[in-house]
């Protein structure tokens, strides 16, 4: 008791840490919440031989003030027609230490399909990596058009966006399209980036093997 009286701040911090650890262990992911509209849909990816079907695919349109249309489509792709995988990087504004990553899959006929893995926020809820460390958010796979992903960030959010072509074998490129899980899961900051959740993340990231160029959009 004397130790606690002499170090009240340490006691409080220890108690908060304990509560957070209990929350990490006991938190359960759910799908039935009042979600932020852009994260309210859960996509299904159906694989059949070399073809896969994705629905819904977000194809929202934006202007600087916000969304001007909230459209969803569905699409089918032949994995053998996959030509290239693009790596998108969205630096966190005001920081050089963190960034959001996305993938774009380019198919024959100039068809593009994008994927981002997000912290699934509820209406009125703000994103916080610190809160996410205590299992505050669920995980959301968002399949979307390239226009949706790019203009949302560059036009509406006014963020920088960088796009890099990735040099990988076609077989490994196809494995990146291997579906997503729509069962509710907890989002964790260190494990929930788009690149960590797909096979491309387990490649050797030596620059001379991966990057062949850099293109800044917008």
Architecture overview:
Mean pLDDT is 75; it is low at 199-218. This protein has helices at 2-6, 8-26, 129-132, 146-156, 170-175, 207-210, and strands at residues 44-48, 51-58, 61-63, 66-69, 72-78, 82-91, 99-107, 111-120, 138-144, 161-166, 215-217. The chain has six helices and eleven strands. The protein has a six-stranded antiparallel sheet. Strands 1-2-5 form a three-stranded antiparallel sheet, with no helix packed on it. Strands 3-4 form a two-stranded antiparallel ribbon. It starts with a helix and ends with a strand. The protein is 22% helix and 33% strand. The longest helix is centred in the N-terminal third of the chain and has 19 residues, at 8-26. The chain is globular, with a radius of gyration of 20 Å. The chain has 218 residues and is an alpha+beta fold.
Summarize the structure.
The protein has 218 residues and is of the alpha+beta class.
Report the end-to-end length measured between terminal Cα atoms: 61 Å
Trace the largest sheet across and list its strands: 9-8-7-6-10-11
Number of helices: 6
Q: Give helix and strand order, one letter per element, not per position.
A: HHEEEEEEEEHEHEHHE
Low-confidence stretches: 199-218
SS-based class: alpha+beta
Report strand %: 25-35%
Global morphology: globular
- Kindly state the mean pLDDT as a whole number? 75
Number of DSSP E strands: 11
Using the CA coordinates, give the radius of gyration: 20 Å
Query: Helical residue percent?
Result: 10-25%
């Amino acid at each position: 008791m004397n130790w606690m009286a002499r170090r009240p701040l340490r006691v409080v911090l220890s108690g908060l840490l304990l509560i957070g650890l209990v929350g990490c262990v006991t938190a359960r992911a759910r799908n039935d919440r009042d979600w932020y509209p852009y994260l309210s849909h859960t996509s299904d990816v159906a694989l059949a031989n070399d073809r896969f079907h994705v629905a819904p695919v977000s194809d929202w349109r934006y202007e600087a003030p916000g969304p001007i249309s909230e459209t969803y489509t569905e699409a089918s792709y032949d994995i053998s027609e996959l030509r290239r995988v693009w790596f998108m990087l969205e630096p966190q504004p005001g920081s050089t230490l963190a960034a959001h990553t996305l993938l774009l899959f380019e198919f024959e006929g100039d068809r593009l399909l994008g994927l981002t893995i997000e912290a699934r926020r509820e209406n009125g809820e703000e994103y916080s990596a610190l809160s996410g460390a205590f299992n505050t958010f669920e995980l959301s796979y968002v399949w979307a058009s390239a226009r949706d992903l790019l203009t949302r960030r560059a036009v509406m959010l006014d963020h920088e966006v960088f796009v890099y072509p990735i040099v990988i074998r076609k077989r490994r490129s196809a494995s990146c399209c291997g579906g997503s899980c729509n069962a509710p899961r907890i989002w964790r900051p260190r494990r929930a980036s788009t690149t960590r959740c797909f096979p491309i993340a387990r490649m050797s990231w030596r620059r001379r093997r991966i990057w062949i160029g850099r293109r800044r959009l917008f």
